[in-house]
From TrEMBL:
This is Phosphotransferase. GO terms for molecular function: transferase activity. It comes from Haloferax elongans ATCC BAA-1513. Coiled coil: none annotated. InterPro entries: AGP_Transferase (IPR051678), Aminoglycoside_PTrfase (IPR002575), Kinase-like_dom_sf (IPR011009). Residues 26-267 form the Aminoglycoside phosphotransferase domain. The keyword Ubl conjugation does not apply.
Amino acid sequence: MDDRIETALRRAFPGRDVDSVAPAGISWNEKNTTVRVEFADGEVVYLKVAHDHGVRIARESAVVAYVGTHTDVPVPTILSSEADGTVPYLATAPVSGQILVEPWGNATESERDSLAYETGAALARVHALRFDDHGLITGGDASQLELETGSWTDVLVETIDHTRGLATTDRFDHYFDEVVAAVEENRRLLDDAPAALVHGDLAQPNCFRLDDRIGFLDWEIAHVGDPARDLYRAKKQQFNVFRTDPPEGGVEALFDGYRSVAGGLPEGYDDRRPIYEAVWFLIVPGYFDKFVADYDEDPEELAEWMKGEMGLLLDRITT
């Protein structure tokens, strides 16, 4: 337990005796630390501590309260939060049900399709929360979110810069510049996108199943953006495949679940998807060293494959 975690625990739970502090899971986000805390009386909480400023804590606290009030999508229970303190933190209770990776791991193909369907339906319920403008969320509460508004193009570039800031290597930083240039060249297409609340990071560890519903965790990069991009990201993240395509049946189940609530895929999904494919792929150059280590890849072979893939993706945007 480092000094920042100890400080946050004293602020959030004064006078409580701590029995253990352990990592909450694997994360590539080095700007936060999230731990599982067990108190001497047996109560368990999860504590997220920011290592820089508190805007992501303020955002997550506001969005969790807002989603919990305006949808039936399950969200964590916030026990304590402080975004403006010396150590910004967010403390939440353990969620009911299972983190999605648990039922997914032992599921049959048809059971996985059912889980994907439920996830798509839950995401559509979040996307039903619409706004007049796109923007970055800076705070708010259960009744209203505070936005730093801007065109969707500008907000999208901000999210790309966020990914660049989290990147663990700058060896391939030029790819970020090339994708940003392609995004800005397509302002007319992008700025017509709907303005919806989007999660932004729907990997399976950020989803949980409660009875027959899927809920979402970790809202710190949520924003008001294009639901088509969020759905495309969910398609990639839910199936956690690398250098292969997600299973067709699972993707169709995810989309069918979305359609069951929204009546169809997000407006303009097919038109803007090529842009979001290139934006999504930036995780590979950004976290190149992680992919080499986690997938036991030859660095130079991976770099050559990445160069070819990025060229194809950028060509699709301009043709």
